[in-house]
Write a structure and sequence with these properties.
By secondary structure, the protein is mainly α. Helices cover about 75% and strands about 0% of the residues.
């Protein structure tokens, strides 16, 4: 029985005496029937293109959302500190790392049809469920603070009051989360995310030294001032890793795959979607490092630069119009990240407490799903209005915290991907396990070195 129209779905009952399908479930069923119809029609290039565009979403959103306001500042701090050297090609390696990690969430969501938080609670019990949920919520609120900082400072550079931009962004994030259904939410989010690419033409308009860029990929300038064990290098390497892979991304993409209705047959499309997002993320990251090398190289205490100082330097070196373009990009980066991070909180809470956990759920029926996420985002927005915050320090700290939390998050992910009862033939291969373990070890080593550098800065050249 085909049920493609909302009227048919309203009238459909599993049995004659059964109640009508709830509104949220009706939307999800319609979305899945729509995808099934697109699969049936994908018999020529036009049908395959329509299907590919329909399947686009979770991967692009998670990776361009990863290029958030905090990430923009981190990349600029990195370029200011080290210019066109090691970090430029390192972005490609970090892109590969992000793909390896996030691809596992695509498979896990498509095969199990369950979100990340739900699987942790059901497979490992309430203790580890609470552990992972608290880690996520704390990290999300801190990260959201950096997003609202980017929105606030970008707006101020354009002459807009913080009392307009920060509450306006909070209202926008709340409206798209609570009052739009999944497909509309996803399309609007993708539209916002597309503006993340504004940093690429911005870097080109800065007229970088292309010969120096090419030399960076050939190994020139890979030695860093102060050495690889300096406090500055360890802080920035941790921050760059933290802005590339973070716990919220695991929760977000897996739940997004589930809410979108992707199935095992869509795993390949999900990988293509993720790859497109990774390419966009890497291009933007490299563009920002190139831009910083042109405008900020040699700045004192580069790792402490905040958005205000960066905007001032761009205005001084490149002019008012370029500064305005950067400010708009900074606001967009904060906005798209706030959208997806808030959604990750909502999904995680809904899954943890086994309540309605779909963006297709009506607000009046799913207050427990929407309210905690909106409240966490509101707390971050209020805190950002606090005067005299050390913005540069806060930004780096948030990115480093993501690196610290990531090994535990990856351990849960790996255990789930190696659970044959859950994954069947889609269980992790030995090669994927080896790559994932290598990433975990790298994160742990980075965390240990950063911890020692913080406790004993003199021993690390601090």
């Amino acid at each position: 029985m085909r049920m493609n129209s909302p009227v048919e779905l309203r009238e459909f009952r599993p049995c004659a005496d059964c109640p009508p399908i709830p509104e949220g479930l009706r939307h999800r069923l319609r979305d899945r029937l729509h995808l099934a119809e697109l699969h049936r029609n994908a018999t020529n290039w036009r049908g395959r293109l329509v299907l590919a565009l329909a399947l686009l979403g979770p991967g692009v959103l998670v990776m361009l959302g990863d290029n958030d306001a905090g990430g923009v500042i981190t990349y600029m701090q990195t370029g200011a500190a080290y210019g066109l050297g090691l970090f430029l090609p390192l972005m490609i390696l970090l892109g590969v790392v992000a793909y390896v990690v996030q691809e596992m969430t695509v498979r896990l969501g498509a095969v199990t049809r369950r979100g990340h938080a739900e699987l942790i609670w059901k497979r490992y019990g309430p203790f580890w469920g609470w552990f992972s949920l608290i880690d996520l919520i704390v990290a999300n609120v801190l990260t959201l603070m950096t997003e609202f900082i980017g929105i606030r400072l970008g707006g101020e550079a354009l002459g807009l009051s913080a009392w307009l931009t920060v509450p306006g962004a909070l209202i926008f994030v709340t409206v798209v989360l609570v009052f739009l259904r999944y497909w509309t939410w996803e399309r609007i989010s993708l539209f916002v995310a597309a503006f993340n690419l504004v940093f690429v033409p911005l870097a080109l308009l800065a007229h970088p030294h292309w010969h120096a860029v090419a030399l960076a990929f050939a190994g020139h300038g890979w030695m860093v001032s102060g050495g690889f064990l300096s406090v500055t290098f360890l802080v920035l390497i941790s921050a760059n890793i933290g802005t590339t892979i973070a716990p919220w991304q695991l929760f977000f993409q897996q739940s997004c795959v589930v809410d979108k209705g992707l199935l095992v047959q869509d795993i390949r499309a999900g990988r293509r979607d993720l790859l497109l997002g990774v390419i966009g993320m890497v291009l933007v990251a490299m563009a920002l490092i190139v831009l910083a090398a042109q405008t900020l190289k040699g700045a004192p205490n580069a790792q402490q630069l905040d958005a205000g100082a960066i905007l001032g330097a761009i205005r001084a070196k490149l002019g008012q119009d370029m500064m305005a373009l950067f400010a708009l990009g900074l606001m967009e980066a904060g906005l798209i990240a706030a959208i997806v991070i808030t959604a990750s909180s909502a999904w995680a809470v809904g899954e943890a407490f086994d309540i309605d956990r779909s963006l297709n759920a009506a607000p009046r029926q799913a207050l427990g799903f929407y309210l905690p996420a909106v409240a966490g985002t509101a707390v971050a927005a209020v805190l950002v209005m606090t005067p005299r915050l050390n913005l540069g320090f806060l930004n780096l700290s948030v990115q480093v915290i993501a690196t610290v939390f990531m090994p535990a998050a990856m351990l849960f992910l790996l255990m789930l991907l190696n659970d044959r009862e859950l994954m069947g033939e889609h269980i992790n291969s030995s090669r994927r396990n080896a790559a994932s373990i290598a990433i975990m070890i790298g994160l742990i080593v980075c965390n240990v070195l950063y911890g020692f550098a913080t406790l004993f800065p003199q021993a690390f050249g601090g």
